[in-house]
Amino acid sequence: MSPSGRPRPLSLMFLLGMGMTSERINCPRSCSCQYLEVNCTGQQLQEFPEAIPLDTRQLILAANNVSYLPAVELSFLADLVYLDCKKNLLGHDLDFTFIGVAKLVYLDLSFNSLTQKKKNTFSQLLSLVVLKISDKKKKKAIEKDAFANNTWLRHLDVSRTGLTFLDTSTVQDLPNLRFLGLSDNLWHCNCSFLDFITWMTESNIHFPGKSLASAFPKKKKNNVTCYTPESLRALKMKKKKTQLHFNCLTQLYTQDYIFLCLAGFCIFFAGTVAAWLAGVCAVIYEVHISKGEEGEEED
Question: Which residues are listed as membrane-spanning (predicted)?
Answer without folding.
Answer: 257-285
